[in-house]
Amino acid sequence: MRFFTLSMMSLLLAACAAAPVATQSVALTALPTASPTPPPPEATPLPSVESQPDAPLTLVIWWPEPLNPVNDSEANSQLQAQIDAFEAANPDVRVNWRRKLVSEVGGIMSGLRTASAAAPGALPDLTLLRRDDLLLAAQLGLLQALQGRVSSAILGDLYPAPLRLGEVDDTLFGLTYMLEVQHAIYRPPLALNGWSYADVLARDVPFVFPAARPNGVNDVFLAQYLAALRPDEAAQIGSGTLPLNENALRSTLAFYEQARVNNIITPAVLDMSAPIDFVAYLGESVVIVPASTYLTLTGHGEDLLYAPIPNAAGANITMLDGWMWVLVTSSADRQQRALDFITWMMDAERHAAFSAAVHRVPAQRSTLRLWHDDAYGEFISALVENAFLPLPESAATSARVLQNALSAVLLGQRTADEATQDVLTQLAG
User: Fold this and answer.
1) Which residues contact 197 (CB under 8 A, 6 or more apart)?
2) If you placed Cys at 100, which of 59, 62, 104, 169 could pair as Cys (CB 3.0 to 4.6 Å)?
3) In what helix (H) or strand (E) does residue 321 lie, and over which residues does it extend?
4) What pLDDT, in 10s, does the model give residues 180-224?
5) Considering its fold, how many domains does the chain have in total?
6) Which residue, among 388, 394, 335, 337, has the nearest Cα to 147 in the 3D structure?
7) Which CATH number does the domain housing residue 338 bear?
8) Does one domain contain both 296 and 401?
9) Would you call 199 helix, strand, or coil by DSSP?
10) DSSP at 265
11) Partners of 57 in the β-ladder
């Protein structure tokens, strides 16, 4: 029985070992196929923006009223036309010109001094000054030197005296644009030949000129005195010195002494200082006027003749002043634009057109040759070739002493010899 039981257990174990083991069938689910990553969308281009050009540079120019009077429509139109043409040729530049008085408060020189100290941004880039103001402005450091910055063609076209007019201590600060010269005028039927002292004293024709000058010496007497000096002495005026020559002074005062005796020159001239004072004498007198007065009168139809200031030799002489371009701005870019404008305005044809419109003498030889009156142009050219520069402020004391001597002779208070001695005593010690 025990055997049977063991046998049955053996059979059961064998059966279990032989039977296969059932395995669970697991179905594999296929993974979804990965789709390729789409490329990033192309960027939508932004609308193109054109680069905006820089705003035009605006040049500020202070224009002196005498070179474009308020009521002179012809001069104003001519100036505006030349500026418009410059802007058309230079589209990146605009010109803002402002008419300025000269000597009054608010004028050019006072404006430069005030603005440089209180409001530098209000200063112009460019303006025009006469000799006295140019010397002062350069001394105060208000101007930029033009030395080496003006074309040789323009400089070579200037007469020597106008070129020196713009120099300060041998450095160019002003480029002369318009000239101021003086000469004699008279009306037909007067027909006068010869302008030496002897010629004038031999004629019974009054001689009228602006002799008043409270703070200096008048230009006519000064030109006559300088013409009587040796050339090397007269050249000293350029360095600020009024040379003292006894013989030259005595001979010049002697002319006035004799002219007073002959009633050719009267003391009334000592009260005359402006053209309006003595133009009324035209008709029976020889009158000394600025060339601008002659050009204005003849432009209005006056029939006038012209001659040099009387002097010992009867030579072509005059005192010279003028209007000069000066550079104010310290900006290199603005300086170049201002120089471009100067070059434009100094073009011979434009220079001739504007000088004719404002009744002024141009400073360039080529411009003068374009004038319609060749004979007058040649006369002016001869005067400018022999012109003397204005006296600087440093010679003011000597100038007043000479003026006092002239006044004393014309008033009959002193003879020429006595007045000469007075000058020597005061100036030579």
Assistant:
1) 255, 310, 311, 312
2) 62
3) strand 318-327
4) 999 999 999 998 999 999 999 999 999 999 999 988 999 999 999
5) 2
6) 335
7) 3.40.190.10
8) yes
9) helix
10) S
11) 93
